[in-house]
Structures are given as C-alpha cells and as structure tokens.
Design a protein that fits this description.
With 383 residues, the chain is of the alpha+beta class. It folds into 2 domains: 12-276, TIM Barrel (Alpha-Beta Barrel); 287-380, Immunoglobulin-like (Sandwich). It is 29% helix and 31% strand. The chain has 11 helices and 20 strands. It has helices at residues 2-16, 53-63, 75-82, 93-105, 132-140, 145-158, 182-189, 207-216, 230-233, 254-262, 278-288, and strands at 34-39, 67-70, 108-116, 123-127, 162-165, 195-200, 204-205, 219-223, 244-249, 266-270, 273-275, 289-297, 300-307, 313-317, 324-325, 329-332, 337-346, 349-351, 355-368, 371-380. It has a 15-stranded mixed beta sheet that branches. Strands 12, 13, 15, 17 and 18 form a 5-stranded antiparallel beta sheet that branches. α5 packs antiparallel against α6. The longest helix is centred in the N-terminal third of the chain and has 15 residues, at 2-16. The chain binds zinc ion (2 copies). One zinc ion binds at residues 41, 43, 114, 225. One zinc ion (ZN) binds at residues 41, 43, 114, 225.
Length: 383
C-alpha cells in the first residue's frame, strides 16, 4: 500500500512539472493501426460555449489532437441559447463551419450532437450523424426525459449514429457518483448505447463507467466537454496535455474513426494515465517503447529503453521477471531513455544469464479498475 501511495505521489509530482520539450500529443502508430488522438465531446458558441467552431479546430491542430467531435446541445434549449439576437441558423451550422476548417488543417471533424436530458437517462452524444434537426425535433416532442432521450437516440440511429452515454458521474446530475439506472438498461437492451465516457473533464475519471464498459463490451470514450477556450481548461505552458481518446484506426477519416469505434478499438489517455484492454495496451506499448540497445559488460546486460510517446511510463518490476535482477521502480518520461543493468542471481551473487525476461507492471496503465497492465520484453545476451 505504501509503495502504491508513493507511486501516486510521484505521478502527481510528474503531472505538476513543466514538460517543456513537447506540448503536442505524440503517439506512434502500431504495426496494424494508426493511433489517432480524439476529443469526442466539444461545444461551441452555437450552444452554450463561447468559442467559434473553427477556433475549436485550430486548438486541436496546435495540440496534436487529430479527431474532433462537434457535439453542441440540441433540443429547444439550442434555439433558446443561439437565437438570442445573435444567430438564426439551424443546428448543423457549428459542424459545417468546423468541418471546413478541419479540411484545411487536416483535423478530422465528426458531426454530432448532445441529447441533453435530466438523469435518468442524462446526456448522450450521437456521433456520425448527417442532420441534427430531425433528432432534436423528435426529442422535443416528448416531455418525459427517458422517452425523449430514447426517441432521439433511435432517430439518430436511423442516420447510423454511434451513441455515447456522457459523464455518468457528473456531480450536477449524479452527486453520489455514477449510477446505472433502469433507464440505462432500457437503452442498452434496445441496442442504443455503444460507449460511455469514462473520462470527462468536468469530473475526471469514472471507475464505475470503466467497469461497465468492460462488462458490457462498450467503447471507452474521453471527451473534454469544453465550453471555454482550451487555454482556460489547460495550462499548455506548464506541459498539460488535453485528455484524449486513443483511436486505433485503419485510416484517418470519418469512416476510419467510425469503424474503430464500432469495433471498440479505443483507449483513454488522461491526466498521465491510460485505460484500455490488455490487447490494445500491448499494441500501444509495442509502438511506444523501443529497445534501443542491448550490451554486455561483465555479468551485466544493459538494456536501453526509449519512450517515443507523450505518455509517461511508471514501471515496477512485475511477475515473470524473477530470473533477472533489475531495478524495481522507474519512470521513463516522454521521449526519454532509461538503461536497465540486469544480471542473474545465484546465491545472491550476480551472474551472467544468456536469456531473461524484463517484466514491468505499468503503474499508470489500467486494464480494469485497480488492475495494472503487465508488459514483458524477452532479452538475449549479445554474443
Ligand atoms: Zn453533457
Ligand atoms: Zn457537453
């Protein structure tokens, strides 16, 4: 327990320190997939935020965020907010403006909207839609929050939508933490829930949502849900990175992102931590952690590892590494290297070994609540 507390303290110190080398998120692609960074929940001045849509795209471009979902609130509230003498336009305008800028800057912009109902069922994002108007109209036709929400999700599905339950742990709607209501069983059983936000900047990470995604085979989603300009949410000069969904896609396009989400190939990188399935995290670490060199000096095999990503790696010695003696705790910061001096042990005396396993528990990578990701590297002594 003490060790864990120390590690969390170390992580907190890391997160607070300036990271001047790189403020753009960099994640190498895996052997089989592009690893796209996405902000899947974003508001503009066309609902209740105060930022113009193409500025949202420019923020992504500067920060290295490759995919942006425009998800302004829909329903009658949209009209109340937007038509206060400033604008008179339909509910697709924010996407249209952002998509045009996205084409210019190479940011993939996805058309979405936020179904904004009281809990239960709460808020849902519908992504990859063509037209917000009929979805909002169907929603508005119902007084009941559950009936209106479900009708909107079903209407969006007619357009091929991907439906995300947003911020189930938002304190304003669920002050005692995330609760799976009967309404959510109804939506899930009707096949109208594809994913849950396990991280939303308003309230951070939700352990309950993470577990529900695992149990029900739903995609892990992260969205900032930003309403203010990003510089009000993040201190980029201090090295803070935007929380993002990691999308393992075959191509960087709207269709490529949709295919990856439907196949549940997503993970989340937020506040220096990563959440995802063991399979995806293995692919991710294979891509990010490079064995730069293996050399021999006397009984010691020196293995140099390099972290080629923006993700810090907090490593402890894991199960399966018993054959070799090497340091039991280390942090490999983004774009830094670390050399492990490894020996075998015989009666507590260092000896050379021909082959051994470096086994690491990634203390800031989670495959389930409380479950750390384990990664192993087979090392052969150089001839
Ligand atoms: Zn919301
Ligand atoms: Zn929102």
């Amino acid at each position: 327990m003490k060790t864990r507390l120390f590690l969390y303290a170390a992580l907190a110190v890391f997160c607070a320190q300036p990271m001047t080398a790189q403020n753009k998120i960099v994640i190498p692609d895996t052997k089989d997939y592009l690893v796209l960074t996405g902000d899947m929940h974003m508001h503009t001045i066309f609902s209740d935020a105060n930022v113009w849509p193409d500025t949202r795209v420019e923020e992504c471009y500067v920060e290295g965020v490759e995919v942006l979902c425009i998800t302004d609130h829909m329903e009658a509230r949209h009209k109340r907010m937007v038509n206060q003498g400033l604008f008179n336009c339909d509910r697709n305008k924010s996407y249209e403006i952002a998509a045009k800028r996205g084409k210019e800057l190479g940011v993939t912009v996805i058309h979405g909207g936020e179904v904004t109902r009281r809990m239960p069922p709460g808020h849902f994002n519908v992504l990859f839609i063509d037209d917000v108007e009929p979805i909002a109209d169907v929603d508005d036709a119902h007084e009941s929050h559950l009936e209106g929400g479900m009708a909107a999700l079903a209407e969006a599905r007619k357009q091929g939508s991907f439906n995300v339950w947003n911020h189930p742990h938002w304190a304003a709607q669920s002050p005692t933490g995330a609760i799976w209501h009967d309404a959510h069983s109804k939506i899930f059983d009707a096949g109208l829930m594809d994913a849950i936000e396990v991280y939303n900047s308003c309230d951070g990470f939700s352990m309950e949502a993470f577990q529900w995604c695992i149990d029900k085979n739903l995609a892990l989603i992260c969205g900032t849900d930003a309403h203010k300009p990003m510089f009000m949410h993040l201190n980029a000069n201090a090295g803070e990175l935007r929380p993002v969904t990691l999308i393992f896609a075959k191509e960087n396009s709207v269709e490529g992102v949709k295919e990856a989400l439907n196949a549940r190939r997503t993970a989340v990188f937020a506040d220096g931590r990563v959440y995802g399935s063991p399979e995806l995290l293995k692919m991710l670490v294979d891509a990010c952690l490079e064995v730069v060199s293996v050399t021999q000096s006397g009984n010691t095999t020196r293995v140099t590892l390099k972290n080629n990503s923006s993700i810090p790696m907090i490593l402890t010695k894991g199960e399966g590494g018993e054959q070799a003696a090497y340091t039991s705790f280390n942090i490999i910061d983004p774009f830094e290297t670390h050399t492990y001096g490894c020996t075998g042990l015989e009666y507590k005396t260092p000896v050379a070994v021909d082959e051994f396993v470096l086994s690491f528990d990634f203390e800031n990578f989670y495959t389930a609540p409380g479950q750390h990701f384990n990664y192993r590297i087979n090392v052969k002594k150089p001839q």
